[in-house]
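Two proteins follow. First one:
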Amino acid sequence: MEGVPALDEPLKKSLGPATAKVMAEALDLHTVGDLLHHYPRRYAERGELTTLSDLPLDEHVTVVAQVADARVLTFNGPKGRGQRLEVTITDGSGRVQLVFFGKGVHKPHKDLLPGTRAMFAGKVSLFNRRLQLAHPAYELLRGDGDESAESAVTWAGALIPIYPAAAKLESWKIAKAVDAVLPSAGDAVDPLPPALREGRGLTDLPDALRRIHRPRTKADIADARERLKWDEAFVLQVALARRRHADTQLPAVARRPAPDGILDAFDAKLPFTLTDGQTKVSKEIFDDLGTEHPMHRLLQGEVGSGKTMVALRAMLAVVDSGGQAAMLAPTEVLAQQHHRSVTEMMGELAEGGMLGGADRATKVVLLTGSMGAAARRQALLDLVTGEAGVVIGTHALIEDKVQFHDLGLVVVDEQHRFGVEQRDALRGKGKQPPHLLVMTATPIPRTVAMTVFGDLETSVLDQLPAGRSPIASHVVPAADKPHFLTRAWERVREEVANGHQAYVVCPRIGDEEDQKKKSKASPEDEAEKRPPLAVLDVAEKLGAGPLAGLRIAVLHGRMHPDDKDDVMRRFAAGELDVLVATTVIEVGVNVPNATAMVIMDADRFGVSQLHQLRGRVGRGSAPGLCLLVSEMPEASPARQRLNAVATTLDGFELSRIDLEQRREGDVLGQAQSGVRSSLRMLTVIDDEEVIAAAREEATALVLADPDLTAHPGLRTALDALLSEEREEYLEKG
């Protein structure tokens, strides 16, 4: 075929410039192939109505429903008398109101007669506590006998595809556009090797595309989905397998700890024994460090499972072997916290070159953006001469000026807060690629680890160290039961009276910058959605009211770094009773004496984030208490989410719930630093078997043919499915 392959043909050629422009802007669809891979979200059956009671608020929806009644009302508005058409649609049980205003009432009044069935598309809102679609677009579903109507032909067939749509582009317009390009499906290049396809009984790609868009039966949909899931899982796993294979070809310096070195001295002075989990994971890491290609390992561990201890021992092993280790933290507060706890744990072993330092000691330096010039100069000098074996810092470590003597290991704390580019820049600081250990306290279900971090080997720490206490969590329904909130503040006072400390967490800071960002919303919206509670307001109210007399301080991201460090230091030293903070305390802050946490507007946080926050209490020998305050009604999804957090301390279970509630792309997008998710059909949670099988097949195929010379179709799919940005993401790993 001459020129552009059919699936790479720009949409404006087949659909015209106007439609193509809307498709590009609203749905990010640019070519025939993009449109063919824009799959229906679900299918409506011609006679079947959509369940209206489950419609999600503030989302753009397409529903199939029947008109129950319609009436035109006249009202007095600012510009004189106006007309409003109110149409009630029903699914037989629930009802939703449609409203049309002004000159736009005449056509729908004529079309939408009681008894008429149609597809309606619009944004769901609440008005007077009733579900409403304002000015929806609609397409009448006429009887099949009505041959004069073009719709009868368009909607022939029992299953009507409902596409993910946009305000300017309704589902039925997308369906018509798909009809125009569907013949090109025959030119789709099949990425699956024939042996794999036949072995697993999968249909070919052109057939799968035809069946997913225009199914005749439900079996057609099931076959097409199965096949398209395999495409996505397999192509992604091939990309990751190639990445892992390429890593095994890279050179690295093997880092084996010297006997009687700093690691042995450190282990000898530990006041406790390592958990079995810590010992097992340390062995996996030391084995990797001893090889001559770079380690790429993901260390997952529940909040407080002792990841920092494992990482520190790995860093000391590298120092023993003559190299340097760098730990990268996402915030200055956390970098300072890590530096403080590492130097405390190491004692005189962290005082290399100083009076009173041990013989086998090294220097542990801190490097952050807000350091003074003199301290910064000294830190940079210690790094370039090799005087400092361990450096802890923020992304200031990545700047061009920072030079290492011999960087052997990079530890990244809280992976999901670091862009891949940043990880890569730090790795470029070594003479040869350094070993890489990525740590996260966000438990990641196995399938997500295989998909998002598929280029990393995974270690899991699932035991809590001895002496850590359980955390009791409760939901406080502030609107239904205000006395519960009163009791929550009494509990905080009781903890403080017993010599402990407490956190109060709020979603917002509450200074002027927040106010400027407020969008203009209608009065109804304002009532439904008051702004989230803010640190500065809450701290003031608590100090004047329920927590009067206690030593209260605030902590948030826009404070000067020195002030933040001062507040954290005073809190850690027990000079403050209550810290009112934003989520800056979410990760890594370690104050064993803090036993209570009250999270205000807890429904505004994600499940995993609540679990992370909760992990800040109960870090000592006294039991922890976490109170989740919410004004959401009992039956709301937000409250169900909070109940789930309150009833389990299992982070893996919670991360599953979190994933099921968020869209797949959010999870992948976050981990891929904003790159659009290429997964349209595959769901990481439900398709564990497909992902695991695809990973096996992909690993075997890449081992046999790393350059995919025998699989040109797969090569093409790899280039197409993984957009350039994503290729880059995988390249950098």
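Second one, unrelated to the first:
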Amino acid sequence: MLPPYAALALILSFTSLALAADQPHPAITSSTQLSQMHDAIEGLSGPNASTADLQQAARQLDAGLDWLNANRERMNGSPTLLNERVNLQLARAEIHARLGRKDEALAALEDMQTLVWLPQLRRALREAPGFASLREEPRFKAVLATAYVPERAMQTKALATIYKEALSLEERVAGLSLFWAEARHGFAHFDNVPALNWDKVYMEYLSKVITARDTREYYRIMLQLAPLLRDGHTNIYPPRELMAEFFSKPPLDTALAAGTVYVRGVHSAGLAARVQVGDEIVSIDGLPVTQYAEQHVAPFASYSSPQDREVRLYTHQLLAGAAEKAVRLGLRGKDGALREESLARSGWTDWQAPAPFSFRMLAGGVAYVDIRHLESDAILESFRNALPQIMQARALILDLRHNGGGNGEDGLRILGHLSAQPIPVATSYARIDSAVARASSGSYFHWLPIGGGEPYRHAQKHPFTGPVAVLTGPQTYSAAEDMVLSFRAMQRGVTVGAATGGSTGQALHFPLPGGGNARICVKRDLLPDGGKFVGLGIAPQIEVHATLADVRAGRDPVLERALQAVSQ
């Protein structure tokens, strides 16, 4: 999600603020009328507008601004109304410029900048024909310069140095300082780490990065910094040149169930002869598997909830390491016999990842859809291609157990095929920290609503009406988790499985020295009813967990229970 003011209509159009010539100009008396004004006055400020048309549009804009000025206290507490004032002043500036009223036009632009400094304005002001008469005016140039201030003040490109074997002391300290400062001023979930002293962390890591011998060691230190914030959408990533050093792994899928770590999937035909689904992992590189995970994986794992931590340690990152270093696994097979396998972390040419989308019909006329991510238009297209069969099915099971997220809009579009009603969504907030308030009253966080809360409205008039079950688990993450919370709020069916990962939001991305990059979660999402789920997860209505015995027997108890639920 963009910052509140980045969604301003002023970036989109200069021709949407006009009033039909034969309409009167009643005073604006409500925010509803203000919103309707954009549609009601379309046409008059187009490129062929007459002087009378432009004058009429200017009067209507003045009416809107008069209402906002009369409701200034209300406006100051509403991002939407603040955006409206900026939009109206920008449109008013263009119309006055076209009417030859330079002073009025410049005053409108300057008034607009009392509310927002927006870098995107520069291109619009430089290129929009309506402002041509102002471009040599010193006051206009000052407006352009002010619009550039946020980019110049928050510029991080100077720190985005290229990869080299050893970073300078200045680069190492600057990278740490940037991540620490961005988190300090924007991180949305400090309440999930109440005991964390972020300033103390900075001092401790300062000494560490100062003594780092090379870029590899520097990023090994930095990769342990982000996990201290306990958030799955807050991470540090090494340069591309070092990715294989940290994240190479054999083509195995592992998991933890009831205290036992086991092989859940083998994604290489060449490896399948040596390692089988259901093999228990007893040790890694000579250490008991849980000890290995705590010592060698946990320090590098960014997670939001206990179940998310379990997945990070025993599924996503358990076998990750340097590409050139094999990993030794102590395995116990179904027969109880122990053996050891040394597996390369690289060089596997027959890696076969699970399909991101699959559909099949189950017994009893139940449609089953497995969606592994929401990161491409192909997923939504695949779902729509399966719709004719889904619509004929008696029931639907939607499997999101391994869905790591992506585009939340696509998740809502899929849910739109399950109900004709508007779909509830999360409520979203941004941290607003005022230095003035800190100076006078001490530190506090002010949470500003930035969107969400309003149901998602769609055009599906003939949705699927049969029973629906959604399968969830700790790998149900981000946009997929948003999808689950909306499904629950729709009261459209049941959720079956385990709690979701408990992590969603909007990440602020920025580069780090040496080619690395980072992200920090800066948006706070709550359930539609205001409840908290980040750091907790969303519990299923029917809880079911697979055991090692289930895996070895080829059973899926979560899917079996969902079939029972939609058949009742």
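SUMMARY FIELD: Residues 107 and 277 are 71 Å apart (CA to CA). The radius of gyration is 28 Å.
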